[in-house]
From TrEMBL:
It comes from Arabidopsis suecica (Swedish thale-cress). This is 3-isopropylmalate dehydrogenase. Homodimer. Pathway: Amino-acid biosynthesis; L-leucine biosynthesis; L-leucine from 3-methyl-2-oxobutanoate: step 3/4. It catalyses: (2R,3S)-3-isopropylmalate + NAD(+) = 4-methyl-2-oxopentanoate + CO2 + NADH.
Length: 409
């Protein structure tokens, strides 16, 4: 990889990488794909970032977030080598598969991956293996990113955007740690079969091995330790065997983290508590399916899906950073998308993916600054604020990144 980079370095320039991709012809792999920004300066840290814009609003929000990431990084002495690759519907249109091998290779060889969103009406009737969303399953599975971190924070500027009463929503600041590569979404046996009565049956299996529980629990304990020191493990141990083992393993690990206060909650109660008293939660750890549902529920407390970033991390290799929203085909191409979830995903990329906390803080502070100045996209707009589009919101955040005093971490 280093040799490859050296071959392609050209100071302060953008260059197209020549014929490196087997299944994509030069014509298919036209701009914006295959763009590498090459610029190595002495004394600067350099990272390879795979950009996967995807579909719908994906390219709009990625283009904005890329500029913010580049600016915040450069102010902290970081340089990025971006490689933009097709994924999802965009890849289906180019080469007939949602996750081309070349895209996966570029992602796997990068230091971190920033993804926009995947999917759209155009591909809705495709067979399952040719649906754009399959790219996400392949990426998560093959990168082995088993830990999905989803913060849900109600910013004071946006408390009125929450569907909950102000006194319930204000001050909410939680992190949901979801297991991402196991459980019922991947468990075997699975599928639609015919039973002994000749009737169709749908089968999905909730299954967790001890090591899968231990590794996600460790991520959660470590996360809680860096936050307010409270961890709530959510399961269904009154019914599900996989949850009984989950609770046993999480409880056993607690002795290694005496500074973290561990509690357990059944998932049905957790769903209620999230809207009754969300402030009680600091860090939540849960399995794949419960995390999928609870994190979407938590996202609504914050007001808009357009505000929420996520990080997916494995034991080694690059992390995957993406907004939690989809491709929003209803507003795609209209400059209406809120780019803040993707910009905040870029901040998570810096913080959790590269360990560059100062640059991450610059972005987080700039987002707050732009909101303080009253800039709002349509999804978070309220009277008295200034309605802006995706690009203008990006420009305002960029200005704040440039003008804000360096943050202390
Ligand atoms: N991670 C992903 O890539 C991902 C996640 C969820 C859904 N999807 C796919 O996205 C497509 C659309 O799905 P959906 O409509 O259920 O969910 P969605 O998140 O795309 O949109 C839901 C609603 O939220 C709005 N919205 C979403 N993001 C926004 C943003 N940044 N700014 C302003 N408004 C925003 C949309 O306009 C829409 O009204 C489907 O093909 C689905 O499979 C992809």
């Amino acid at each position: 990889m280093a040799a490859f980079l050296q071959m392609n370095i050209r100071l302060n320039s953008i260059k197209i990488v020549p014929g490196r991709y087997s299944s994509l012809t030069d014509h298919q792999f036209r701009a914006p794909y295959r763009i590498r920004c090459a610029a190595a300066s002495p004394g600067k840290k350099r990272y390879n970032i795979a950009l996967l814009p995807g579909d719908g609003i994906g390219p709009e929000v990625i283009s904005v977030a890329k500029n913010v990431l580049q600016k915040a990084g450069s102010l902290e002495g970081l340089e990025f080598d971006f490689q933009e690759m097709p994924v999802g519907g965009a890849a289906l249109d180019l080469v007939g598969v949602p996750m081309p091998e070349e895209t996966f290779t570029a992602a796997k060889q990068s230091d971190a991956i920033l993804l926009g969103a995947i999917g759209g009406y155009k591909w809705d009737k495709n067979e399952k293996h040719l649906r754009p969303e399959m790219a996400l399953f392949y990426l998560r599975r093959d990168l082995k990113v088993f830990a999905n971190l989803r913060p849900a924070t109600v910013l004071p500027q946006l408390v009125d955007a929450s569907t909950l009463k102000k006194e319930v929503a204000e001050g909410v600041d939680m992190m949901i740690v979801r297991e991402l590569t196991g459980g019922i979404y991947f468990g075997e046996p699975r599928g639609i079969k015919i039973n002994e009565n000749g009737e169709e049956v749908g089968i999905s299996t909730e299954i967790y091995a001890a090591h899968e529980i231990d590794r996600i629990a460790r991520v959660a304990f470590e996360t809680a330790r860096k936050r307010r020191g409270k961890l709530c493990s959510v399961d269904k141990a009154n019914v599900l065997d996989a949850s009984i083992l989950w609770r046993k393993r999480v409880t056993a690990l607690a002795s290694e983290y005496p500074d973290v206060e561990l509690s357990h909650m059944y998932v049905d109660n957790a769903a209620m508590q999230l809207i009754r008293d969300p402030k009680q939660f600091d860090t939540i750890v849960t399995n794949n399916i419960f995390g999928d549902i609870l994190s979407d529920e938590a996202s609504m407390i914050t007001g808009s899906i357009g505000m929420l970033p996520s990080a997916s991390l494995g034991e080694s290799g690059p992390g995957l950073f993406e907004p939690i929203h989809g491709s929003a085909p209803d507003i795609a191409g209209q400059d209406k998308a809120n780019p803040l979830a993707t910009i905040l995903s870029a901040a998570m990329l810096l913080k959790y993916g590269l360990g560059e906390e100062k640059a991450a803080k610059r972005i987080e502070d700039a987002v707050v600054d732009a909101l303080n100045k009253g800039f709002r996209t349509g999804d978070i707009y309220s009277p008295g604020n200034k309605l802006v589009g995706c690009k203008e919101m990006g420009e305002e955040v960029l200005k704040s990144v440039e003008s804000k005093v360096p943050a202390t971490v």
